[in-house]
Amino acid sequence: MINTRKTTIGLYLLQRLKEIGIDTVFGVPGDYNLTFLDVLEDDKEITWGNNANELNAAYAADGYARVKGAGALLTTFGVGELSAANGVAGSYAEQLPVIHIVGMPRSDRISNGALVHHSFGNGDLLAFIKIYQQLSVASALLSVSEAACQIDHVITESLQSRLPGYIGIPCDIVNTQVEVNACNKLDYSIPKSIPDVQEAALQAIITTIQQAKHPIIIADVCALRNNMKKEVAELAQVSGFPVYVTPLGIGIVDRDLPNFRGCYMGAVSLPQINAEVLGADLVLELGGKRVDTNTGVFTSSLSPSKTIEFHTNVTKVLHSSFEKVAMKELIPLVIKHFPESAKININRLIKNTLGPPAQRAKTPEGDTLIQDYFWNKIPDYLPERSVVIVETGTLSFGSMNLNIPKDSIFISQFQWASIGYSVPSTLGAAMADRSRRVFLMVGDGSFQLTVQEISVMLLHGVCPIILLFNNDGYLVEELLHAPNRKYNSFPMWQYADSFRYFGARLKINQERRGMNKSKFNIGVQKKVKTRKEFEAAMEQALDQPNCIHFLEMICPSNDAAKEVWQHTELFGV
Question: Which residue positions does the secretion signal occupy (predicted)?
């Protein structure tokens, strides 16, 4: 006999979110989601994000998911959900499970096609869920009879596929009681591989590895999304193979692993790294995603004739494909059965052949804040377990050879590349794990798109170190096309005064922040114009972990890291 219990649809949805580790829901109040917000606010285990707008809320949920494993977003029907669409699309492109909850009109008005506000006024109240079917792996308009099953289905599909899910909840059924299975736990593990096919794949892999003379490993984003950092490290250790990451895979391998050689991105890799990869006769590609920004604009050289591809649900060994063989299951088997004869002594290989890992060129002498100096210097200030968030564009390209510390998380939207993403993402990441130091690197133009979330950071008492690069323009777009055009210019702001403008010290905001954030304070907030000023400000900021910091870094308007120049030449816009 099935053990059942009674609950409401709203409470059941929150219960399922908490089961997958979500303790913050980002979003904006709107008339169709207010009933659900009542339930959410009464739940003492869930924090309401209280974002400035829906797009920012979607970005914040994305950043939260990158740290916590999944995120949640709440908007209202029509205007709210469409405002969030760009952010949710980014989560889809970058493979992140964000559960998007949409407060909908009453059930009878949906079925009757009522001409309600926030709709197109044509009676089609399902128009927006149809749009979201392109932005989510699973979607559901909840009904009383099927709500529990629908909720479970969307969340399970989202977590299994690492893609967003959409749940529309009519405002009149939020508090409706339903009977649910009291013992039913969500199972979002990836479906098991077909045993015979998996065994065939394993044998093909072992045989291929045994025949290789110069094998390497390239770890990429899908291994990161499948939470396989441990397995990647174990494979590197048992094999001794040199290990590389891609831009999307930064963070999947700790820089102190003896095998770690750096970031491979085709022709724009550091020359030594490119030569090492080109010299390999076998590549174990773990979770590869060969998009332009991850491959040096399609200049990477991973021929099928020398590549074993491990993916979420398929494995390819040279020219043979093994469907429904998941790397989450297969890589541990490769580790277990790794042939003794194929193991490499990495220390001997480094000493006799490879030499030390490649490094960025040394910074030219001087005291000017140039980006090549910054990317060489910033690792000195990053502690273990950091979260490093880099805005798309000039900064993300510059960061591609950044080696982050042990147990750290690197966040940059290389694939979707929506400018402004990083500021709300920083809020989400900081709320996902308050024990980590969070570092944001953002350009002045991107900052202007989503600056409102600074006020939400102050509200929630999170403590990132914000490094804003003021180079007075959209530099990456100037490098891509027509540098003298005026459309890449925008108003100059007093960036270092952002905390004051957003009311950091206003009594009403301090009261709303609450006593539980009493240790929170405002730290460094200043312009820095020289390397010495930057270094002094960073030392001060690191000594104040319970403060939020803002460094406005005054940089030359035409300065960019070497990696930026290389990429913009290849994009050829």
Answer: none
